[in-house]
Design brief:
The chain has 262 residues and is of the alpha/beta class. It is 27% helix and 25% strand. It has a seven-stranded parallel beta sheet, with helices on both faces. Strand 4, helix 2 and strand 5 form a beta-alpha-beta unit. The radius of gyration is 21 Å and the shape is globular. The chain binds flavin-adenine dinucleotide. Flavin-adenine dinucleotide binds next to helix 1, strand 4, helix 3, strand 6 and helix 4. Heterodimer of an alpha and a beta subunit.
Amino acid sequence: MSLRIVVCVKYVPDATGDRQFTEDLTVNRDDVDGLLSELDEYAVEQALQISENSDDDVEITVLTVGPEDAKDALRKALSMGADKAIHVEDDDLHGTDVMGTSLVLAKAIEKAGYDLVITGMASTDGTMGVLPAILAERLGVPQATLLSEVKVEDGTVTGRRDGDSASEQLQASLPALVSVTDQSGEARYPSFKGIMAAKKKPVESWDLEDLEIEADEVGLEGSWTAVDSAAQRPARTAGTIVKDEGEGGKQLAEFLAGQKFI
Ligand SMILES: Cc1cc2nc3c(=O)[nH]c(=O)nc-3n(C[C@H](O)[C@H](O)[C@H](O)COP(=O)(O)OP(=O)(O)OC[C@H]3O[C@@H](n4cnc5c(N)ncnc54)[C@H](O)[C@@H]3O)c2cc1C
């Protein structure tokens, strides 16, 4: 038996840098450092653990929709241990919202072939957390979202979803889609051997034509949502420095009380 897993990974602007917007109110992804969304590392990790615990022949493909630099996110996932990568890139994708992104991902996943799709719980930039559900609907497969434990056995994926008051055990027959949380297990660091091996792993590039998607189905024109305005947050004001000259503790307590923290 073989099991084909597709892991959706997003290349996101580094959250420690300033978020900038371009003139058309889209996020500036060109002039900022980016990286593999931290929450998607958990999705890659779960795919690797399924593979390691399986007697089946498991193939892990990582997939991203993003600009040229998004290849960095794919390389990181490959160096963690994924087998191959697909990069969907096209100038007409600029400004595509979640509906367009899910369309592109669905077409790419269908073209690649799959038994199980794994996504993160949310991206660290858009953080909508809805893409997995929309993607499952587009693929017409069952979804089990926000899992903190995933297992695959006998053509079935099972998982635990931890809520505030109860833990649910979910089960779906393959093909299916699951999203995993940051509680699913620490993501591994790529080893030196993994980094070297990743350089030789295949990375396919597809554009909209390869996926038979028309330009007006994506981009700003095809988006169901529009951003009306975007503004930088006001700069942080300077903090208050309490110098300890014998009365530091008292001054600190007074400050915290004044701010109603205590
Ligand atoms: C170059 C570029 C320009 C964009 N411009 C806009 C824009 O102007 N307006 C707009 O609304 N949106 C835009 N998007 C799309 C947006 O960044 C999100 O990809 C999309 O809206 C999904 O929202 P989210 O990241 O909040 O998804 P979430 O639902 O928070 O993500 C959940 C999971 O879905 C998967 N996922 C999400 N996005 C991708 C992806 N791109 N590739 C692979 N897996 C993914 C990951 O596994 C992630 O953990 C753009 C994307 C790109 C790459």
